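tmp note - Calcineurin-like phosphoesterase domain-containing protein
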Amino acid sequence: MAVGKEMKRYIASDFHNGNEVADYDRVMAFLDLVDDDADEFLILGDWEELLFSNMTILTEVEPYSSVTERVKEI
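out:
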């Protein structure tokens, strides 16, 4: 990072991917914004829990898999 350069940093937490309460349209719109605009993207909170989750659901079942793939692309 260059000294004095302004950066756009997006910080996200608690998407609740894999949970019925998640608003997937808003999550995907946010991820599109991050991809287009962010210099840095920090993911906090429930994403850590993915390490201990049923990854089959998060990688093969919609809409969970779309969110998982979009985050991987970014």
